[in-house]
Amino acid sequence: MLIRRIAVENFRKLRDPAEIRGLQSGLNVIVGDNEEGKSTLLKAVQAAFFDRYSMSGDAIEAMLPFGSKVQPKLEIKFKIGKTSYSLCKGFHQSSFARLKNAKGHWENAAAEDKLEEILGFTRPGRGPAKDENRGLSGPLWVEQGRAFEPLKLNDDTKRELDEAVASEVKATTSGDDGPKLLAAVEKEYLRYYTPTTGAEKRILTHQRDLVESLQQESKNLTEKRREYDAKLEDLEEIMRGIPKLRKNFEQAQKRVEAARAKVGKIEGIERKIEAADSALRIAKAELGKAETSWQVRQDKRESLAKAKMDAKSRDRAFSTLSVRHNDAKVNLDQAKEKLKWAQRECRRAKLKVGIDKLEEAEGIAKNIAENKVFVEKIPITNADIVDLRSLQRDLNIQRARLEAMATTLLFSPRGSQSVSANGKKLEVDDPYRIAGKTLFELEGFGELEVTPGGKEEDIRSCHSSVEDLQKKLRDKLDGLGFASVEDAEEAWGTKGFLLGRIGIAEAGLNGLAPTGLDGLRSNIARLREDLPPMATGPAMPVLSVKVAEEEERDAQGKLNKAEMEFAAIQGSWNKEQGALKQLRKNLSKLQEDLNTDRQGIADAIREECAKGAKKIYRKRQEKLDKVRARLEELSPDSTREELNREERSCERLQNSLTGKERREHGLKAGLQGLGILGLKEEVDKKHRELKDACMELKRLELDASAWKLLRDTLRNAEQDERLPLTPLMERLTPYVEMVFPDAKLHLNKDSLEVDKLDRKDANEPFDSLSIGTREQIAVLVRLAMADLLRKQGKPVMLILDDPLVNSDDGRFDRMACALRRTAKHLQILILTCHETRYKSLGANTIRLMKREGGASIAELLAMPNADGIDFEPARLSGNLYKPADLS
Amino acid sequence: MSITIIHTADWQLGKQFGNIPGDPGAALRDQRVKTVTAIAQLAQARQADAILVCGDAFDSNTVAEQTLRKMLLATKQFSGDWVFIPGNHDPARAASVWTRAQALRPARDDVQDNVHFLVHPEKPLTLQNGALAILPAVLERHHEADDLTAWFDDAPTPPGAIRIGMAHGPVPDCLPTDEVHNPIAANRAAAANLDYLALGDWHGTRKINDRTWYAGTPEPDRFGSTNPGNVLVVTIEQAGAPPEVEEVRSGEFVWKKIEYSIHNDADLDALTLQIRRLGADVNRLNRLLLRLKLDGIANLELRQKLDHWIAEWKSRLHYLEVDDQKLIAKPTENDLDQIARRGFIRTASNRLQELASNLENPDRDIAKAALMRLYQKRVQG
Asked: CA end-to-end span of chain A, whole Å?
């Protein structure tokens, strides 16, 4: 593929019409400064070839120049093989697509269909084309800054690569030999396996089933053979054992006969024993009867004798018991008398005590009465004494106040002179208080007027209170008949004392006679009434109550004891008396019964009968013993046991012999039947068949496995061969050696992406390499791929937008060699802003230059050589590149 | 009175030849009965007085009824006496081929009066009006520890009768075998004053002493036997006279073994020549059974030639058994180049060669076979 001319108008930043002409085969370097539209130019070429002219929406918006709604137009003139094409597309409003060559032209959808056909790509459904929609150009037209990215193949590229590789494979496998061989081997394989699942066919499964079936049959036959051998062993064992068994049986029969004869003799004796035993039993019955009768008579006699003895013994015992019974009764009566005495003495004692108490109580009662009379003569009461004490206390208080306020005078005349105050004679040596102005007449002296200090009124009031109180006290004392409070207090004390004594006496009286003197007297009268009359005789002194009560308790205890003893002996006495009566009754009955018996048969006759029966019995017993002794001599049990044993043994032997003979016949017949089957031959035959089948199976399995392995190996090898990896590597290796001497590049066989780079000192994954190395490798892979595709006639050319910006100078130079190598056979457009770097390539270099006021693209197309705003090819002197195959 | 007997043994009737598959095996089985008929015809032709069959007439006590009947039918070809003793393959047990044969006697005419089954121990048989006394050693079990011929020493026979002993078992120290069961004293003939001791068990014809012989099997039945396929025609002029023993060929088939190394085409040619010579010796190649054991190293080309060679000779011989386990197939570079010099077919052949030569690969035989098939497909088309 060769692009000759590119014209752009209203496309992104290339708003004005722009055109690139003079593009040649081989290397073309388009140089421009930043922001001049190099990358836009690549996008314009991509849009012209791969974007649908009718697309709309965001994709169109992205195409439009900023802030403009004009129609983007693109035109490209290109050549595929020997055919030149002119492609023109207008987007957005009144969109169109036109493609024409020398033979015809196509409009709109037809134009895009034709493009798809000649370039081999798949158009996008909607929206702008992506890498996967750009066919071979997807991986080969590299946008700026993506050169180092791994190669990503779209489906169209893969298909084109596969076609290219298929042609190569065909060329290296002698034409159609490979497919023929594969088909032939497949045919052999299909003899054994199904084509779809690879399952084994009947030829194998049938043989395997046959082997299994034969194994089972062989096993069955072998089992039958073993059965035959086992039966034969059995038969021989039986045949060896039968003669001995028969001999044992005959011997056993003889032993049975001998035992039977001995048992016959025993049975005769046993019959005799039976007869003797029967006679003995009769004699025994007679004996029993006679002895019983005699024994009954004897028993009656003995019973009578014993009853008589018992009666005597009982009589004696009853007499003794009667004495004891009387003694007990006497004791009881005495005890009763004693108790009666003690009770009377006790009452006497209590009567005396009562009388004493009454006397004492009466004395106390008299004393109380006297004291009460005396008390009644003392008039003062508790209220009186309280009043007196109150008055006295008030008086004392008032006096104390008066003394405090009044002036006290004490007259102590040397002689017998008297003193009077206010006309009243004063006692000498007796203090005298004055409450107001007082006129003293001092005998022998004259008068003396004394006026005490303080308020006179208070003193007078106080004095008045004292006098008032004194008067009240005096009146009270006078009323009570006492001279002073002290007398009253004394009288009150005496009265209290007497009242206390009266209280004590009353308590004592109450203790002696709680019910009063009358109650006490009534008790005494009752005691006197209850007192039994005294026995005649001298009067006994009265005991103390305590002693009397002691006597009573003692008498009561003795009475209780005597009563118990009497009651005990009374019971025995009554019982013994009853028994004695019964005994005497029985005795008379026994006597009567015995007498009745004797009237029938006398004792002597009865005794003689018993003796006779016993004699007969002994004789018969002796006879029986003799016969039994004879029987014992013959050991009947062991003899019968022996006979039984021998009979059973004989029967067992007979059964065993019969069984073995039957078994012998059966085994012989069975073996005869099995022998006829020819088991050995059948077993051998089956083994042979099995061996044959196993060998055939082994042969088939080996053949099948060999064909399968051969088929799989061939297919795998062929598939590996079909992968693009090999031819791609063949083309890539020289490039790699050119740029990375002594290094080996590894590609993924399916994705063709670079796995790693093996170098002498390192084995580095692609992702670990520097960006510069990665972009160099990525460019080399694209060069090799373009080589491969071009060789198979695919429409390829390379567009690289600043691909080696990260390469150092050395690598750049080596990469330049690689580019030149590729450019010998196909067109490469390099877009760059590094003009000087690419000078060394000697490439067709075109510089982008902007001009003012250019014509529209339609005008340019109409004027192919006109100059508008265009990009003039800058031809470097001496560096023009003219590829030999430029057509 | 001169007595002529046919001494034979080890017919092994009913033997299946499990290692010989298909028609060749069937032919071998049929041939054994035919050989009995041939023996009967020989006896008839030589006007023999008796045919002594010294054990193992049958391969087993459980041979098929048909086999038994075929044998009895063959006995009708000779009107003289047939004397059979049991062998270790067909001992006279409580139930055996002999009891079955006896059972046929009263009911039918399958068993003629001139056919004698000596199955009771230490019971001599007198024939030819007392001129011939047969002393049989009767095996009642497969294996006996004692010499069953010991009773011959004191066995009375009619005065002047020719005493012939019949036994089945090895004569210790006289045979290249370690077998110890059913021993027979080497000097029994002398000790028992026998005119001839007819033995069975050893499958090759073999003379022990002037009066003691193994007849061998009349029809070879295995690879490796020495001088099988004969019967002995024994003539004794009178009691005490030395027996005249004639070895008469009776076998139809020849069994041979060859061990051979193959390394190149010349070796294969030499082998071909050797087999041709062998065929000339046995007269008829289609009666030859050959066990071929090969070793050496063969490339794919030679191996393919050998396979063709084997296929060809299998069709020419009665039976060819090839054991090539030790013949190593080793493809050469030339072999691989013949398959393909380049391309995926060469890749595949290289991979198969790698699998085939890897001793640790359990499927290397499959890889060898696959490589051989690839070679054949590429070379032969």
From this structure: 10
B80 CB contacts (<8 Å, ≥6 apart)? B43, B44, B48, B49, B50, B51, B114
Strands of the sheet containing B162-168, edge to edge, are B125-127, B132-136, B162-168, B196-200, B212-214, B206-209
> For residue A483, what pLDDT is reported?
86
Residue A184 and residue B377: Cβ atoms within 8 Å? yes
A90-128 confidence digits (pLDDT tens):
988 888 999 999 988 999 889 988 888 888 888 777 778
CB contact under 8 A, B343 and A169: yes
Give me the pLDDT at residue A161, please.
74
Residue in the structure block whose two tokens are 């085939």: B356
CB within 8 A of A70, min separation 6: which ones?
Answer: A10, A15, A64, A92
Q: Quote the CA–CA distance of A589 and A598 in Å, as a whole number.
A: 14
The answer to whether the complex's ipTM is over 0.90 is no
Task: Pick A16 or A812 by higher pLDDT.
Answer: A812
Which residue segments constitute the domains of chain B, with CATH numbers given?
Answer: 3-249 (3.60.21.10), 254-380 (no CATH)
Give the integer Cα–Cα distance in Å for B342 and A174.
9
A688 touches chain B (CB under 8 A): yes
Q: Give pLDDT, residue B110.
A: 55
With tokens 């393919």, the residue in question is B304
Predicted confidence at residue B217, as pLDDT, reads 97
Task: Say if residues B214 and B202 touch (Cβ distance below 8 Å).
Answer: yes
Three-class secondary structure of residue A398 per DSSP: helix
Alpha-carbon torsion, ordered A620, A625, A631, A633, to 10 deg:
-150
d(C-alpha A338, C-alpha A502), whole Å = 46
Give the closest of A235, A691, A716 to B18, CB-based: A691
Q: By the 8 A CB rule, do A690 and A215 touch?
A: yes
Looking up tokens 């002073």, which residue turns up?
Answer: A484
Q: What share of chain B is helix, strand, coil (3-state, %, to 5)?
A: 35, 25, 40
Angstroms from A173 CA to nearest CA on chain B: 5
Q: How many whole angstroms separate alpha carbon A335 and alpha carbon A852? A: 178
Over 90: is that where the pLDDT of A480 sits? Answer: no
Angstrom distances, CA of residue A824 to CA of A662, A735, A830: 110, 14, 15
Q: Is the pLDDT of residue A882 over 70?
A: no
In this predicted structure, what is the pLDDT of residue B26? 92
Residue B234, H or E segment? strand B230-236
CA distances A96 to A18, A91, A92, A129, Å, are: 19, 7, 9, 17
Three-state secondary-structure class, residue A615: helix
The domain segmentation of chain A, as residue ranges, is: 2-176+723-862
Extract the tokens encoding A684: 């051998």
- Please give the structure tokens belonging to residue A308: 């008589």
**Which positions in chain A touch B63 (Cβ < 8 Å)?**
678, 680-681
Cβ contact (<8 Å) for B366 and A236? Answer: no
Instruction: State how far the Cα of A798 lies from the Cα of A147, in Å rounded to an integer.
Output: 12
Q: Which helix (H) or strand (E) holds B254?
A: strand B254-262
Tens of pLDDT, residue by residue over B187-228, are 999 999 999 999 999 999 999 999 999 999 999 999 988 999
Using 50, 70 and 90 to split pLDDT, how confident is the model at A257? very high
List the beta bridge partners of residue A873.
A846
Q: What long-range pairs does B349-353 form, CB within 8 A, spacing at least 24?
A: B349/B374, B351/A713, B351/A716, B351/A717, B352/A709, B352/A710, B352/A713
3-state secondary structure of A748: coil
Per-residue pLDDT at A156 exceeds 80: no
d(CA A17, CA A72): 10
Superfamily of domain A2-176+723-862: P-loop containing nucleotide triphosphate hydrolases (3.40.50.300)
Query: Lowest-pLDDT range, A134-138, B105-109, B159-163?
Result: B105-109
- Cross-chain residue pair B93–A232, CB shorter than 8 Å: yes
